[in-house]
Amino acid sequence: xxxxxxxxxxxxxxxxxTASDGETFRFYCCGPTVYGPAxxxxxxxxxxxxxxxxxxxASGLKTKHVRNITDVDDKTIRxxxxxxxxxxxxxxxxxxxxxxxxxxxxxLEPHVEPSAVDHIEIQVRxxxxxxxxxxAYVAEDGSVYFRVTSFADYGKLSRLHEREITTAPxxxxxxxxEYDRESAADFALWKAHKxxxxxxxxxxxxxxxxPGWHLECSAMSMEYLGESFDLHSGGVDLLFPHxxxxxxxSEAATGKPFSRLWFHSTHLLVEGHKMSKSLxxxxxxxxxxxxxxxxxxLRYVLIAGQYRQPLNFTWDSLNxxxxxxRRLQQLHQSLxxxxxxxxxxxxxxxxxxxxxxxxxxxNNLNTPDALGKLFTAAHQIERDLQASQVTRxxxxxxxxxxxxxxxxxGFTFDTEAAPAxxxxxxxxxxxxxxxxxxxxxxxxxxxxxNQLTELGWSVRDAKDGYELTPAN
Length: 472
Ligand SMILES: [Zn+2]
Description:
alpha/beta; Rossmann fold; Four Helix Bundle (Hemerythrin (Met), subunit A); binds zinc ion
């Protein structure tokens, strides 16, 4: 099977996804900062990373997937104090919420999920290594900075031209907490403790403080994947300075190439606008569920756009995703019915008629193309099934191939099959309406339908019952 290709932000070219050790594809994803709910823009990145992993695994490689939890930084400290909670209790709460959302979106769990607070020691050791090599220096207040001019390759990922890096003496800058820097481009590896940090400080050879945010990803990725590994990933907003700084810290310390490939997904727009607090469009998975859509419909929407193109999220696109998933589910039911329990699929890992679907995914995760081909194949199979041209054995093989394809997309139907949870009152009205209809009391049924409409729910009759959906 040909290796999947992916656009690498470092070389700016398509590169084959291979394992440098010939066996396991080792990759790192910058994880969430746990100080509030992740929004759907964050989840675009996590869903696309999940798809990447599934495609690599479908290509026959094993994976080792590491994704961190940022549980100490300015935002987590500030917010925990505003809420009067310990940093640990505060970040644990949001980490749990993040995990619940990931599960609902059917994201595969990373093999290792290290947290910054649990890895202070290896971060301190990495800083010491950089100081010893002359790539970092201790400022008067006990903060430690990376000396950007000491790393000749600085800017190779973002193609930052020398003129864009301001090497002006940092004293001329207004930033109050970083006045000790030699140069404005230098960034903090260790932040000396300040009063507003409260009890959140750890010991180090330079006095108590906490690691700088960029550092944790270098330290933890190398800890679990080795000093050189296959791929590093995050949203495009992390490319500079975060990923540039990670490269500098890691390669300066080890003298080896850090990540071989770099994978960035582009922004999510909401109804044509950038996501922002001021626009009030930082929607979360809960917002999606509150409007009656399943997490799987959101997964579908987030996958449906090619990851290098901005994706415009609309509430309408969730409606379309819901219909698309229903159709995929129907095909699954038809194939399951056509292949009875006694027919087991031939032991092959063939994609069958879904080969073009996999090929499109393996071509730089071209998801729009892949979904188009999925529906083309589905249409053909439906026609063959209707014409009774599919034997039980063939249906079993098709079902097995179809299951493999659904696994690569990460689509499941369980949540989609269940109607969106309606309040008890709404359920009761809908049940009463159904009974009225069965009793041919259509006037009462209509009156109950009107009540449901007023409550924001629409009811649709199905073969053996009814379906409640929130009216959008
Ligand atoms: Zn990171």
